[in-house]
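Sequence in, structure out. Go.
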Amino acid sequence: MKIAILSRNPDLYSTRRLKEAALERGHEVRTLDVLRCYMNINVQNPSIHTLGKELPHFDAVIPRIGASVTFYGAAVLRQFEMLGTYPLNESVAITRSRDKLRSMQLLSRRGIGLPVTGYASKPSDIPDLIDMVGGTPLVIKLLEGTQGIGVVLAETRKAAESVIEAFMGVKANIMVQEYIKEAGGSDIRCFVVGKKVVAAMKRQAPAGEFRSNLHRGGTATLVKLHPSERTTAVRAAKTMGLNVAGVDILRSARGPVVMEVNSSPGLEGIEEVSGKDVAGQIIEYLEENARPRRTGTKGKG
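Output:
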């Protein structure tokens, strides 16, 4: 197959591993900077260009689109889909998962476990908003935040009111969630490929920190999943429409709850901890499923 990888940095671990895995299996691979791609949108001969030249046809495309370029990256990916290229993850699924509030609503509709989540726009609603999620401590999240940035733990009601008011004052979009104390500052990253969890790791926040992101000093260890956690992760990815996803869950007293569904999960931590060739399993999934104009959402939101 001819495979395109949409990535702004070809030297990133995940990008390199995906390219290596594809080359090892005899495929042609080209890494493309998504922001250097531009589109000719017309009825007769739509195309994608980069560096002054039209791109050839690719059988499959692997989107590694950063959160900061979601809008443009999804547009480029849609153009690939229009041209009949099979996407590892579809544009609709990526934009759906990147909208934190919408993803919570979709998970709720499917009956998938999640923290009690509140959303409001007026300061006068703050007292009831805090009560809705069970009072303090609670977690306040910027909807546009990534890698733990823009996530605040408010331990008292006064602190919660002050932080929420401050965010609302600068017109920031936030949601408020219950704090799952029993998780003990840890979460579990389940790496889903197709209809199964192929690897998992437990991420533990450092002392004095509640965010377990590896980018914030968290540590990762191998973890044995409960059947309910595997089922929850696969259902969450399917709800978003993602073929490959990193599903972050917490172990709560009422069972697994989903914190986030990541459409471009990193490979470095999960491969190092699990010892598994996750990149190879992703390429194997493409081999088994890539067909011209084969998409699941058919452009629906």
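Check: The chain has nine helices and 16 strands. The domain at 117-179 is CATH 3.30.1490.20 (Dna Ligase; domain 1).
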